[in-house]
Amino acid sequence: MDERAISSTSPFYTLDAFNGDLAGPVMQAIEMASEGDEGPWETLVAREPWLKERLVQQGLRTPESFGSIGWDQATILFTSCVELSPDGRPLPLGETMTRERFGRFPYGNGSAMSYLLEHIRPNRSITDPDGQEMYERLVDALERLCHASEDAHRGHDRYENGFGGMKIHGYLSHGDVQQLRRDLAGRSWTASYEEPLDGGVADVAKHLSTLLKAAERRRVGIAMRSHA
């Protein structure tokens, strides 16, 4: 495909192995604690002993006390939900080259997912009259992966102001990953005739599918992050 130069200061985007089933309860507990009710956070940490152990290993003496945690809330969310390898490091998804190509897309704000959402269209030969549900489900999953943790969905930007410029944009559960991979492999979608990069949508879909397959093999969900 044709490439367009982008600023070297554009964010770098990653898809990380992530416990998408836990992310919702963690965010709810964080938000309630931020409003003065630490009970749900205390209950969550007590209910998930592995979570308490993980937070202790990261240097927190009393992780059940939300007020004692000096981290920003994006870091709390990511540390709580990132999937780890046996040696305690974030579980890698896909090959390095695929992650690099996904990470800084050569157009606009550098987000491959933003480009995909902007220029994906229903394949009318398939979606009319009975395939529209598949296309809408596909786009909904892409929207949640791109935006579920952002201000527009949560009503605040707490997960967009992490240490080192980290932003957590959205996430999917393992089940969501499986469904998205199947829908992306289907024929309910096509690229806009007006997309500015020839083959851009197809290129993003290819790299995304590779990363989704890697998450499926690992039996994990995913989160989309960026770093300024």
Give the structure's gist in a few sentences.
It contains 11 helices and 5 strands; from the N terminus they run E-H-H-H-H-H-H-E-H-H-H-E-H-E-H-E. With 228 residues, the protein is mainly alpha-helical.
Task: Explain what the structure shows.
With 228 residues, the protein is mostly helical. It has two domains: 1-19 and 84-228, no CATH class; 22-81, no CATH class. It has eleven helices and five strands, in the order βααααααβαααβαβαβ. The protein has helices spanning 20-34, 39-47, 49-57, 73-81, 96-103, 112-119, 124-127, 132-147, 151-154, 174-185, 200-218; strands at residues 12-18, 120-122, 166-172, 189-191, 221-227. A three-stranded antiparallel sheet has the order 1-5-3.
Determine the N-to-C terminus distance.
Answer: 26 Å
User: Residue share in helices?
Assistant: 40-55%
Rounded to the nearest angstrom, the radius of gyration is: 18 Å
Helix count equals: 11
The low-pLDDT segments are: 1-7
Query: How much strand content do the residues show?
Result: 5-15%
What is the makeup of the main sheet? 3 strands, antiparallel
Kindly state the mean pLDDT as a whole number? Answer: 91
3D shape: elongated
Secondary-structure element string: EHHHHHHEHHHEHEHE
**Domain tally:** 2
- Please state how the strands of the largest beta sheet are arranged side by side: 1-5-3
Work out the number of β strands: 5
How would you classify the helix and strand content by structural class? Answer: mainly alpha
Write the layout of secondary structure elements.
Elements: E1 12-18, H1 20-34, H2 39-47, H3 49-57, H4 73-81, H5 96-103, H6 112-119, E2 120-122, H7 124-127, H8 132-147, H9 151-154, E3 166-172, H10 174-185, E4 189-191, H11 200-218, E5 221-227
Antiparallel strand pairs: 1-5, 2-4, 3-5
Helix pairs in contact: 1-2, 1-4, 5-11, 6-11, 8-10, 10-11
